[in-house]
GntR family transcriptional regulator
Amino acid sequence: MKLYEKLADEIEEAVRRGVFAPGEKIASVRQASQRYDLSIKTVLHAYAILESRGILETRPQSGYFVRAKPQAGATRSQPKRVIATASEVDVSRLVLSTLRSIRAHDAVPFGSPYPDPGPFPWRRINQYANAIARRHSSWNLIDDLPPGNPELIRQIARRYAENGVPVDPEEIVITVGATEAINLSLQAVARPGDTVAVESPTYYAMLHAIERLGMRAIEVPTHPADGIDIGALAQIIARRKIAACMVMPNFQNPLGFQMPDERKRQLVALLSAHDIPVIENDVYHELYYGDARPSTLKNFDTKGLVLHCASFSKSLTASYRIGWAMPGRFRAQVEKLKFLNTLTTPSVPQVAIADYLRQDGYDRHLRRVRKLYRQQARIMSAMVERFFPAGTRTSAPQGGYVLWVELPERVDSMRLYRAALECGITVGPGYMFSTRNVFSHYIRLNYSYPWTAASEAALQRLGELVGEIGARAGRAGTGENAHER
């Protein structure tokens, strides 16, 4: 193979692998000549080949650029998509497949677990971060050590105090998002092989944490308005040893309920009576639709058994992944585990968020987002009722940005997941929210993104797919029954 052919093939392979993105400028002829130790003539020949293949294009007085991919046609079913199979559903793989589909195919993000970043003040926070980076050319690693930036800790404690949650700033440990806070808390209270009680359905990140640490989950029935069934939990505790309990009392993902205060009090009392720690995932605590911020399990904790976990990812900015834990009596262990697991949380994002909380209108921003989500929850619920077949039911979210949809029993959510992907639409199949297949005819939808004609058309198409899959399942069932007769 000639040198120019070899260079052309290498660059084409790099473009195919995504090393060079569509529209991105590549090295100039002179730069490539120096980089690859080739003559300018050889590089020019290679670039000419790539132009003929449609890989590169030249722009006058600008250089060589990766040619943009052709726009998708009216039918969006042509690109092949990697999806999990229904026979052996791996929750982690299914979640990753959904996220990749959203990113890689510009799919309608009904299946996304993340809020639309559009309404968030990320540009303002980036400005703070850039200013901080300019002021401090280098950071001392000691400044990043747990528990975290003192000013950020103070701002977090202040927000809790203003909302009636008594918090000692000394209890707060800054983490890399709420996911790390949950993982550290779980490590602090349980060991491999232990059993952890969770809601059913439950947020899949909780199941991931349990699986990763070699523990076992036992699912407790959960009411769509009142939360975890405390009576059922009490029966489980009476029968077997439970190392910990993991719950989302406020705007649970995927059900969206706000657990009543009395139920929170009863839950903490039950677990306290048996000295069982409870990990409270309160990541949606700022996204309430009512007039006041809801209470937390921490409000009712008198023995330090509540390990409260939260973050700014759902309410302020997801890109910086700043969260925290308030682990009660397990604070020292969580701080030690933080040091052993990830050593530090980067300082610049911590300081930038602390500056924003101190100087900008966080509450004003939150009021706008809450109003937007409340409106879009109503719109999506109404559209599901309009476009989906009879027998469909939806949750009634009190906060957050997800809608839990019960489909007719014959509709398998994995089949819907596949069919929807072929139409450029993502959903969260019910399989992701349990270790068992008890939610096979449920899906979770994200309503945080702008409601447009395109999203309405996508939801209408999704309703048609539900009807088609249900009809096929009905015909298959009738055929089987006839054969049996």
Q: What stands out?
A: The CA atoms of residues 395 and 404 lie 5 Å apart. The longest helix spans residues 453-484.
